[in-house]
Amino acid sequence: MLAWAIRLVTFIINSLLLTGFALIFTWLGSTDFYHAAKLKLRGFNQIILTIGFLVLFHAASELRIMQQHYITGYGWNYLNFQIGVIMFAVLFKQGRWLLLSLTATLFVWYWWLPNVTHWPSSLPCQFC
Known about the structure:
This protein has helices at residues 2-30, 36-40, 42-67, 76-92, 96-112, 123-126. By secondary structure, the chain is mainly α.
């Protein structure tokens, strides 16, 4: 019973986070900024927001997997929300830079992360 309650709470919290992402992303895309610098940085801010939420969901997934002592399947709850973030960003902003940055992020993500044996403890050693 406790396991299902934790899954339900995790789903509700992730749904709220995804809704918050959608609201902030839409607000950034539709707000009329008075300063030209802010207007120029609109797309950049949307890219940073998207990548930030992907990292947040991925970190939560990794921590959940580590908490359960590396049991297979505990990261899938967060993968759905990562896909939701990507789909929302790509469908609601048809920008070349967003698509290129997400492609580069996902390429590094799926190429580099599976090769890391003990993530986060080996992170500093990757760059040595």
